[in-house]
Amino acid sequence: xxxxxxxxxxxxxxxxxxxxxxxxxxxxxxxxxxxxxxxxxxxxxxxxxxxxxxxxxxxxxxxxxxxxxxxxxxxxxxxxxxxxxxxxxxxxxxxxxxxxxxxxxxxxxxxxxxxxxxxxxxxxxxxxxxxxxxxxxxxxxxxxxxxxxxxxxxxxxxxxxxxxxxxxxxxxxxxxxxxxxxxxxxxxxxxxxxxxxxxxxxxxxxxxxxxxxxxxxxxxxxxxxxxxxxxxxxxxxxxxxxxxxxxxxxxxxxxxxxxxxxxxxxxxxxxxxxxxxxxxxxxxxxxxxxxxxxxxxxxxxxxxxxxxxxxxxxxxxxxxxxxxxxxxxxxxxxxxxxxxxxxxxxxxxxxxxxxxxxxxxxxxxxxxxxxxxxxxxxxxxxxxxxxxxxxxxxxxxxxxxxxxxxxxxxxxxxxxxxxxxxxxxxxxxxxxxxxxxxxxxxxxxxxx
Length: 448
Fold this sequence. Notes:
Blueprint: E1 5-11, H1 17-33, E2 36-43, E3 47-54, E4 60-67, E5 72-80, E6 86-96, E7 99-109, E8 115-121, E9 124-127, H2 137-153, H3 158-176, H4 181-198, H5 203-211, H6 219-232, H7 248-262, H8 274-281, H9 284-288, H10 290-297, H11 302-309, E10 313-315, E11 321-323, H12 324-329, E12 335-341, H13 346-356, E13 364-370, H14 377-386, E14 392-395, H15 399-407, E15 415-420, E16 425-427, H16 438-445
Parallel strand pairs: 2-8, 12-13, 13-14
Antiparallel strand pairs: 1-5, 2-5, 3-4, 6-7, 8-9, 10-11, 10-14, 12-15, 15-16
Helix pairs in contact: 2-3, 2-4, 3-4, 4-6, 6-7
């Protein structure tokens, strides 16, 4: 489990040298331990920001920083150093000349970095550093262009595969020329990820997973591992997948991959994955965190979830109170996708934009439920209008809702729950619209 230490210092516009010195000394003391990474954000005024961090299961979570003060405030959070090297993602909208402009930043943190410092202003965080060696935006951008190109092409034919592979090889060769050692590791990860999109069964993907000792923790590696295990889960000879035949590193990495595959909504409780589940239960990963893993790979009781969801209360744009059951009864659709989002959640907004571009089933309605605080009601109204959300609601802050949010695990955004007109829960945790198989998964539940 992740434990965060939250420290907040407020000072006047001139700054407080005594506080700054104390903060600096504390950071140095923590750094000497070298078992954690300290991330600090200096706010000049009120604001909020969230970085994408990878947990020990190579899954994303948001590390949020919220400043409700108009004064200079430094917020410090400490995360355990689980990985030797990791990528911290941050993206959002920057206010430029009164217009929101999308941006994304990627910071590569190696084993020598124990403190990451940011300044926050104009709705954007800027890295405080004499050097820009942590910033790998240019590397990410190069490979992301090819990823976008592949997504646009859809299902690839053989000629397209050959051309894309040739383009990938040229990009890989050229990007390695002036790269540092750690950047080369990141580039190799991007290379394998795109190779996997072109040739999913390529032997080099197997070699990469089997021989990686200390992977760079990032969403790209999670994607490689998830697709690797998901594509091969029915092909593995689990009786021979042990530390006698393979390295400990490979078994540990594979167990994370199998876990992430089994916790995928469409795979939970599926009998054809029984051998994979039996194998996972015998691993070190499971024995070290059996309660959490068992809960994640076990199908949720849809009746209990239905009863809990029906109790969630929120308001519409006219400040009228509602529960989801009332909204469903007022509509004529057979199916409803509940989109839990927030104005401060950049991935949520990007996913909403992706949904707008999709050819969704005609008998499906989307219910947008914002998790913003009541004090941010105006921001929610403005963003709902900008995004052209017809069924937009704001969750009500009360004890009952807070309890339900915890019980149905709505602590991570975005979150998508699919229900039918009778309020039967069909999928408790849909993949996001920006993931390639979202529409395919959605349509698998919907009967025209």
